Amino acid sequence: MGADRPKQFLPLLGEPVLLHTLRRFAATELGVRRLIVVLPADQLATWQELCAQHAPVPPHELATGGATRWASVRQGLAQLGQETEGTVAVHDGVRPLTPARVIEATFAAAYNHGAAVAAVVPKDSVRNLSQQGSYALNRSRLRLVQTPQCFELHLLRRAYQLPELNTFTDDASVVEDLHPIYIVEGDYRNLKITTPEDMLLAEVLLRTAEENGS
């Protein structure tokens, strides 16, 4: 991002990106019981200061992250203590525009099928690289995976008891050896803020949503 602070703390229409993300989950009709924010140890104080500046903030708990995404998700699971029943979502803190429809549909699919992820069909043509050059892939059979990724809690706990995978890319890749992954239709507005251009687009989308009351 090239910014002076972590991207989850960047101001989006005057409020931290991460706060917008929290509100998306708090505002659903799911009755989410616990929201856990996992951050590096050296960012916890900054986040608490931002919460004080931008109150009210949805009630949530804090957990200290690990050296990798895998370790951070495991720390978030540890924060749940002895709970073994229920559906849990893992979500990128820098996806502040996730529609309620996507959150609710992914939770429902995980409740019914055990494991579900939001994903969209690629808009562009996709090619696979090989030693001989490259070849086209059928994009109708491909999906770009988003978050939330939702799982029955006991299933995700089982997956994270295994050693960390070198091929780890997301939580579905941890779980898929234990259980099939159900695909839920995501949303192209559910962007993951990674570059300065993403911030500009997020501002436009968020402002448009506010004007439309959605």
Automatic annotation (TrEMBL):
It catalyses: 2-C-methyl-D-erythritol 4-phosphate + CTP + H(+) = 4-CDP-2-C-methyl-D-erythritol + diphosphate. Its EC number is 2.7.7.60. GO terms for biological process: isopentenyl diphosphate biosynthetic process, methylerythritol 4-phosphate pathway. GO terms for molecular function: 2-C-methyl-D-erythritol 4-phosphate cytidylyltransferase activity. Keywords: Isoprene biosynthesis, Nucleotidyltransferase, Transferase. Catalyzes the formation of 4-diphosphocytidyl-2-C-methyl-D-erythritol from CTP and 2-C-methyl-D-erythritol 4-phosphate (MEP). This is 2-C-methyl-D-erythritol 4-phosphate cytidylyltransferase.
